[in-house]
Amino acid sequence: MDKEKIKKALDPFFTTKKTRRFGLGLSLLSESAKAAGGSFSIKSKPGKGTEVKSTFKTSHIDKKPLGDMSQTLITLIMAYPEIDFYYIHKIDEAEYSIDTKSIKSQLDGLPINSSEVIKYIKTNIKDGIDHLRREK
Question: pTM for the full model?
Fold first, then answer.
């Protein structure tokens, strides 16, 4: 994305989708992170890729529930198999991460959104985040 598109991406009434007239996703993520004492940033290089980073202070009274992150990530991976997702979940000093680019490099041509790969990824994410919560 160029600088102009990054600015527009945070406007809830901007979308590149042809099926609807508003976006909401990034603007809501940004506001939720900031309301919870966290941060939000977008870095992008046209033709190279875009990094969206949000942090939340988990103990903040205004932090909204994150919901089922494993299902959220699975939905994104299934819908956008061409996009590489790198997700880090931290609790205190412990962290869990998943990198779909790394996973794709080991699949030997099997699509990342195939049912067997999705099942593996979903279990991996759930187990990784559950492990962090038990360590807390």
Answer: 0.74
